Amino acid sequence: MQPELRLIEDFLSDRGALSLPALPRMLYVVRGSLTIGQRVLGQGEAFFGEDLITAHADGTGATLWRWELSDPRQPAAKITHSSVISHTKLAAPLAALADGDLLWRGDSVAFPTGGCAYLHRHQGPGIRCLIEGSLRVDTAGQSHTHEIGDAWFESGPEPVFAQAGNRLTRFIRVLILPRALIGKSSIQYVNDEDKAKPKTQQYRVFIDAPLTRP
């Protein structure tokens, strides 16, 4: 059965606690700060692990985006603590995973006003979530404009064109890639004439870690 990639949003109140079972996952701090063991994550920072996680919010609480890779028959972990509110933003089966060893990549992709990503593919599937601006995404004969907080799935092989709106635009992304791409770009431009054109998008990689195959 195909594994499922999920994006879950967690709202933690002041001193809110989060305890999660062992799964491959990335936590991204949208607001506030979070302590995991001896590590403190501030706004805009990310954490990856495959083991059980126990964390708590500091100060005035925190908002997290949590990507998890799981068996689709296993429901998302139930958060029973009164200081945490969670909801699933998006879940997608991963039908196009590469053979062999895998890589978990978590990164940020930013565009200047009006910037674009020319028609391209990626070498693995993933879920994106917009954190700034607005972004029009054209793929599979459809066009959708995503606003802050919107999440969407890209299969990888399906060509995509993306166009930022009238302000700085940025999304956070998790991709499941062949491990041979560690430290390397996963993007493949469809049209030869686009390969040499200047590219406006900027990347910040949070996580590039070997992943236990589901």
DSSP summary: helix tally: 1
Describe the global form: globular
What order do the SSEs take from the amino end to the carboxyl end, as H and E? EEEEEEEEEEEEEEEEHE
CA distance, first residue to last residue:
10 Å
Describe what this molecule looks like in 3D:
The chain contains one helix and 17 strands. The protein has one helix at 192-195; strands at residues 4-12, 17-20, 25-36, 39-41, 46-49, 53-70, 84-93, 102-111, 116-122, 126-132, 135-139, 142-146, 151-154, 160-164, 169-178, 187-189, 202-211. The radius of gyration is 17 Å and the shape is globular.
What's this entry about, in short?
The chain has 1 helix and 17 strands.
Tag the structure with descriptive keywords.
214 residues; 7-stranded antiparallel β-sheet; mainly beta
Chain-wise SSE layout:
Layout: E1 4-12, E2 17-20, E3 25-36, E4 39-41, E5 46-49, E6 53-70, E7 84-93, E8 102-111, E9 116-122, E10 126-132, E11 135-139, E12 142-146, E13 151-154, E14 160-164, E15 169-178, E16 187-189, H1 192-195, E17 202-211
Antiparallel strand pairs: 1-6, 1-7, 2-6, 3-4, 3-5, 3-6, 8-15, 8-17, 9-14, 9-16, 10-13, 10-15, 11-12, 11-14
